[in-house]
Amino acid sequence: MNTSTRQLLQISDAHKHYGTVEAVRGISLDVTEGEFLTFLGPSGCGKTTMLRMIAGFEALTRGEILLDGRPISQIEPYRRPVGMVFQNLALFPHLDVFENIAFGLRVRREAEAHISKQVRSALELVDLAEYGKRFIHQLSGGQKQRVALARALVLAPRILLLDEPLGAMDLKLRRQLQAELKDLQRRTGTTFLFVTHDQEEAMAMSDRIAVFRHGLIDQVGTPMDVYARPVTRFVADFVGDTNLLEGRIVIGGIEIADLGLKLPAATGSRAIGQQVAVSIRPEQVFLCAHDSSRVGGEVCAQVVSVEYAGMYVKLRLRHSGTGKEIKACFALGEGSMAAVSNENDLVSLRFGAHALLDQ
Amino acid sequence: MNHDDPTLRITRLFTDRRLLAIPMLLMIAIFLYGFVRIGFESFTPKGEFTLDLYTEFLSEPVYVRVLVRTVWVAVVTTCLCLLLGYPVAMLLARSRHRDLLLILLISPWLVSVVVRTFGWMILLGNRGAINLALKDLGLIETPIKMMFNATGVIIGLVHVLVPLMVICVLSVLIQAEKQLEEAATSLGASPVQTFARVIWPLSLPGVYLGASLTLLTSTGAIVTPLLLGGLRDGMLGTQIYQEIFSMFNFPRAAALAIILLVISFLLVLPLLAHESRMRRKRGL
After folding, report:
1. pLDDT band at residue A147, thresholds of 50, 70 and 90?
2. Tell me, what's the ipTM?
3. By the CB < 8 Å criterion, does B280 face chain A?
4. Taking CA atoms, what residue in B is nearest to A54?
C-alpha cells in the first residue's frame, strides 16, 4: 500500500465472543483515510459485530482498534469521532428533519447561528433543502436515507459506518442510492465503512472489499482483485458466479480432472501433486464451433440450457467426457450470436483466466 | 350452505359483533343516569334550582382547605410515583427477566388495599416499627408524625399507584427502538443527553398516561386517606364518605362529587391536550 496514505483505523486481532459463540475470531485490517471500504459477507459472518465494535456498541473480547493511532477502547463511545447510519436508519420520530440533523450539533452546544448554517448546508448536500420542517413519517424511503446520512455527516466524522442502510429498499431505489452514496463519499472525502451482504452492491461502490466468513476475513482487495483473483473457495463462490473445479498441481500447470484438461498456471510455492481448487468465471469460458479434431486446450461439451438475460446470455453445458456441469456467459455483441447454440448442440470449449484457490 | 338453517341463523345472531353495543349502551346509560341524578341532586337540594351548595362549599375555609389538600396530595403522589416508577420502568425495559419482575411488581395488587394500608399503619404509627427503630438507634427523641396527616396518605397512595406508573411508562419504553439510543450515542450524546433528548421525550405518552391515572385515582381515593389520613385532615373522597355515612347529607355529597369530577378533569386536561398535540405532530 502507498506509504503516503494515512492509516485511519487499524484493527489488530479483534475478537468478539458471546458466551461460547465466537462472532469475530481474529480480524486484522487497516483502513486508509478517504477510502470506501466494504465489509462483505453472508448474515452471521461477524461484519456487523465488527462495525459495532468500532462504533463502541460492543466491547472487544480481545485485540485492539486504533483510531488515528489511539486505542479506541480508551474513548467513550459517544466521544468517538465516528458516525453511523443504521440499518433501520434510527431517525428520531419526535423531531423534524432539521432537528434530526441538528441533534449532534446541539449536543455539542454549538451556537445557534452555527447550527442553522451547518444544518442548511447539510440539507443542501443531500438535496433536501426544502424539507427541514417535515417530520420523519412524511418522508419517502430514499429521503429518510438521505436525512440519516446528513445527520451523521454534519458532524464531519473521521469515519462513517454504514450498517446495510440500503437493505430494506427495493432494487431500483437501491441502485440509485448506491450512486448517491458513492458520490457523497467522493464529494465529502469522508472515509466510509460499509456493511452489506450484496456482492453487487459491494462491487459497485467500494474502493476495497473485505470478504468476511465465519468471523474472519478471507480476502481484502479491490473489487477487481476479489473478483478476478479470489484466494479461497468461499470468496470465489460468494463474489459473482463461478465454476469451482478440482485440480492437481503438475509440472508447469494444473491438471483439472473435472475437465480432463491441463491448463498452464503459475503454481507459486505449491508442491507437485498437491490438490487445489480452481475457479473459472463463466465469462472466461469460450465457445467454439464443434470440431471433432480436438485441438489441445479444448474440451467437448453439450449445451444443456440457454438463458437470455438481456445484455448477455448464460449457458449451462455438460462436459462430454466427465459429465461435469460448466457455466458460461457471453456478452451479446457482434459475432457472438453465431457462437450461441441451441440445446443439445455439441460445442468446443476453451478457458481463459482462472484462479487457484486455497481450500 | 343452507341459509335458512335455523341453528346457523341463531349462531349468526349471537356472534354478530353489533351485539356488543348492548352492554356498552347499558354501561353508558347507567353511568349517565347516575351522573345526571347526582348533578340534579346537587343543584336542587330543596326541589328548586340553586347554586347554594356550591357557593356554600367554596366560601367555607374548611372545605377549601380540603380541596387544596386533595389537589396537593394528588400532585405530590403523582410526582413521587413518576420519580420512583420511571427508573424502575427503565430497568424493566432493559432486563432479560422482565416477565418475572413484572409479576413481582404487581404482586402487591393481590392484597386488598385495606390490608396493605393496615400494614402501613403498623409501620408508620407513632409507636410503629419505623419510629421504634429510629428511637432505638438514638436518631430521634420524639416520634416523627407519619400518620394521620398528608404524609401518611401520600406514602399509602404512592405504594398503591407506583406499579400503575411503571406499567404505563414501560409500555412506551419497550416500543421505542433500541437503535435510537445508539443513534444518539453515535451523534455524540452522553448517556444523560441521550435520556434528556431521546428517551424522555419519546416516553412522554406513557408518562402522561401514568400521570393521568395516578392523578385521577388519588384525587378520588377514599380508603387510604380514611385510614392513614384520619378524619381531621380529610380529602374530597373522605369528605363525600362522611357526608353520606355520618351526615346523611346526600345533596351535599352530590355537590362534592361534582366538584371532585371537575377538579380531576382540570388536572388531567392539560396532560391529555399536550399528548394529543404531540401525536398529531408525529403523525400517529
Report:
1. very high
2. 0.84
3. no
4. B186
Cα–Cα distance measured from residue B68 to residue B233, given in angstroms and rounded to the nearest whole number: 11
pLDDT tens by residue, A222-231 = 999 999 999 9
What does each C-alpha distance from A143 to A149, B193, B198 come to in angstroms?
Answer: 10, 27, 22
- Give the 3-state secondary structure of residue B155: helix
- Contact status, residue A107 vs residue A115, Cβ threshold 8 Å: no
d(CA A15, CA A53): 10
Q: Which residue in B182, B190, B191 is closest to A90 by CB distance?
A: B182
Residue-wise pLDDT for B122-171, tens only, equals 888 888 888 889 888 888 888 888 888 888 899 999 999 999 999 999 99
Q: Compute CA distances A253 → A77, A158, A228, A270, whole Å.
A: 52, 47, 18, 11
What pLDDT is stored for residue A2 in this prediction? 44
Q: Which residues of B182-191 are buried (b: 16+ CB within 10 A; e: fewer)?
A: bbbbbbbbee
Q: A78 and B185: CB-CB below 8 Å?
A: yes
pLDDT of res. A274: 87
CA–CA distances in Å: residue B212 to residues A236, A238, B121, B155, B267? 62, 57, 27, 18, 8
Distance (Å, whole) CA A38 – CA B19: 60
CA-nearest of A190, A228, A197 to A211 is A197
Could you give the 3-state DSSP secondary structure of residue B130?
helix
What amino acid occupies position A338?
A: A
Residue A3's pLDDT is 45
What's B102-129 look like in SS3?
A: HHHHHHHHHCCHHHHHHHHHHHHCCCCH
Cα–Cα distance for residue pair B15/B17, rounded to 1 Å: 6
Chain B partners within 8 Å of A86 (Cβ): 179, 182-183
| Single-letter amino acid, residue A279 | S
The residue among A157, A127, A154, A121 whose CA lies nearest residue A143 is: A127
Contact with chain A for residue B198, Cβ under 8 A: yes
Look at residues A238, A219, A215 and name the one whose alpha carbon lies nearest to residue A229.
A219
Q: Coil, strand, or helix at residue A318?
A: strand
Q: How far apart are CA A210 and CA A198, in angstroms?
A: 13
Nearest CA in chain B to A155: B187
CA contacts within 13 A on the Cβ side of A31: 30
Segment 115-174 of chain A within 8 Å of chain B by CB: 135, 137-138, 151-152, 155, 161
How far is B279 from chain A, CA to nearest CA, in Å?
Answer: 9
Q: What is the pLDDT of residues B63-119, one digit of tens each?
A: 899 999 999 999 999 999 999 999 999 999 988 899 999 999 988 888 888 888 888
What pTM was estimated for this model as a whole?
A: 0.83
Question: Are the beta carbons of A223 and A202 closer than 8 angstroms?
Answer: yes
CB A149 within 8 A of CB A126: yes
How many residues does this entry show for chain B? 284
